[in-house]
Write a structure and sequence with these properties.
The chain has 349 residues and is an alpha/beta fold. The chain has 3 domains: 3-251, Vaccinia Virus protein VP39 (Rossmann fold, 3-Layer(aba) Sandwich); 252-286, no CATH class; 293-348, N2,N2-dimethylguanosine tRNA methyltransferase, C-terminal domain (Phenylalanyl-tRNA Synthetase, Chain B, domain 1), CATH 3.30.56.70. 39% of the residues lie in helices and 22% in strands. The chain has 13 helices and 13 strands. The chain has a 7-stranded mixed beta sheet, sandwiched between helices. Helix 9 runs antiparallel to helix 10. The protein is globular and about 60 Å long.
Length: 349
C-alpha cells in the first residue's frame, strides 16, 4: 500500500496516497480532510463535557479522530477499531508515530463489542443505520453517542425510496431538506435505542457540506424513552422526524468559551470555521426552537417582488413585532424565525 505523511492538529499521520486510492468505500483506509471541522467540533465538545472516560471509535480508518482525542484529552482510554487489516496497520503506525498509547481492535462493527464505553463514535462511509444497534448496545448509561451520516442524497430527498427503506421516513426536497434530513437521522437513532428503553437526547447537531452529525446523551428508563418518542412527528409532508431541540444551550455555552480561547491563542478569532459555527449556533440559531425555516429568495420569487430585501432589514422588522429571527447554518439563503408565514410576508414586502 502506497502511503504519504500529512499533519492535522499537530499530529503526524500516515494515510493511503490519495492519488492512488481516491476517497471511496473501497479505499484501504480513507482519510477525508474535509471532515476536519467535524473532528475539531468533536474535541471541543468533549472538552466542554470535561470528558475523561473510555472512547470507542467503531470505524477508525487511519485513527485520526481517536488519536486527536487521546492527544488533547490524555485522561481518556481510547479504543480504535477497524476490521480492515490495512487500517489496523495504519492505526498502529500512527499511534507509534505520535507516541500515543491506544488500544487497537479488528472487529466487524456490525456486531456488539465485548465491553461498554462512555463515548461511542459511528462515522461510516455512507449510512450509519447498520451500525446503530451494536453502537447503542456498546454505550454506557449516561454516555455520549456520536453519529455521522454521509448518505445525504437519501436524507435530503434525492432518493425518497432509499430514505424510507433505511430510515422509515419520507424526506423533503426543498430549501429545508438538510434540516429535515438531520431530524430524520435523529429519529432513526432514537427508535433503535428505544427498543432497549434507552432515551437518546440530541445535545449538539450540525449539517455541513456532504454530511450530518449528531451527538446524543443517553439515559436508561421507560418513561424517559417514551418522552423522547412523543417528540416524533411530521413537518410539511416529511417524516416522521424529531421535532425537539437540536442543541443543549448549557453545553453550547461552554463550547463557545473553549472555541473562543483556542481562537484567541491562535490569533485567528473570527477566521476559524469551527469558532464561527459554534458561536452562530449559541448566540443565534439555538435561541429559536422551531422546525424548519423560510427562504426569502424563494418567497420573493413566489410573490413576484422585483428585489430581495436585505436580511438584516427583514429580521429587524420581525424583532420590532416581537419575533425572533436568525440566519440558519442549514442554508445560505434560509432564515429561521418563530414568526408565522403571514408576518414574514409583511416583513419582506
Amino acid at each position: 500500500m502506497k502511503t504519504i505523511q500529512i499533519e492535522e492538529a499537530g499530529l503526524k499521520l500516515v494515510i493511503p496516497d490519495p492519488k492512488k486510492y481516491p476517497l471511496s468505500a473501497k479505499s484501504p483506509a480513507f482519510y477525508n480532510p474535509e471532515m476536519k471541522l467535524n473532528r475539531d467540533i468533536n474535541i471541543i465538545l468533549l472538552k466542554a463535557l470535561n470528558f475523561e472516560g473510555s472512547v470507542l471509535d467503531m470505524m477508525a480508518a487511519t485513527g485520526i479522530r481517536g488519536l486527536r482525542i487521546k492527544k488533547e484529552l490524555p485522561n481518556t482510554k481510547v479504543i480504535l477499531n477497524d476490521k480492515n487489516p490495512f487500517a489496523v496497520e495504519l492505526i498502529k503506525k500512527n499511534a507509534k508515530l505520535n507516541k500515543l498509547k491506544v488500544e487497537v481492535l479488528d472487529q466487524d462493527a456490525h456486531f456488539k463489542f465485548p465491553f461498554v464505553y462512555h463515548y461511542v463514535d459511528v462515522d461510516p462511509f455512507g449510512t450509519p443505520v447498520p451500525f446503530l444497534d451494536p453502537a447503542i448496545k456498546s454505550l454506557k448509561n449516561k454516555g455520549i453517542l456520536a453519529v455521522t451520516a454521509t448518505d445525504t442524497s437519501a436524507l435530503c430527498g434525492s432518493y425518497t425510496k432509499a430514505c424510507i427503506r433505511k430510515y422509515g421516513s419520507r424526506p423533503l426536497r426543498n430549501e429545508c431538506m438538510k434540516e429535515t434530513g438531520l431530524r430524520i437521522l435523529i429519529k432513526k437513532v432514537q427508535e433503535v435505542a428505544a427498543q432497549y428503553e434507552i432515551a437518546l437526547t440530541p445535545v449538539f447537531s450540525h449539517s455541513t457540506r456532504h454530511y450530518m452529525r449528531v451527538y446524543f446523551s443517553s439515559n436508561s428508563g421507560a418513561n424517559e424513552t417514551d418522552n423522547i418518542l412523543k417528540q416524533h412527528g411530521l413537518y410539511q409532508e416529511a417524516g416522521p422526524l424529531w421535532l425537539g431541540k437540536l442543541w443543549d444551550r448549557k453545553l453550547l455555552k461552554e463550547m463557545v468559551r473553549i472555541a473562543n480561547k483556542q481562537a484567541v491563542e491562535k490569533e485567528l478569532k473570527g477566521k476559524i470555521p469551527t469558532y464561527s459555527l459554534i458561536r452562530h449556533l449559541y448566540f443565534k440559531e439555538s435561541l429559536i426552537n422551531t422546525v424548519g425555516f423560510y427562504d426569502p429568495h424563494k418567497m420573493c420569487s413566489k410573490l413576484k417582488l422585483p428585489e430581495i430585501p436585505k436580511y438584516e432589514i427583514v429580521m429587524e422588522k420581525l424583532k420590532k413585532r416581537g419575533y425572533k429571527s436568525s440566519r440558519t447554518h442549514f442554508s445560505r439563503t434560509g432564515m429561521k424565525t418563530n414568526a408565522p408565514y403571514e408576518e414574514v410576508i409583511k416583513a419582506i414586502k
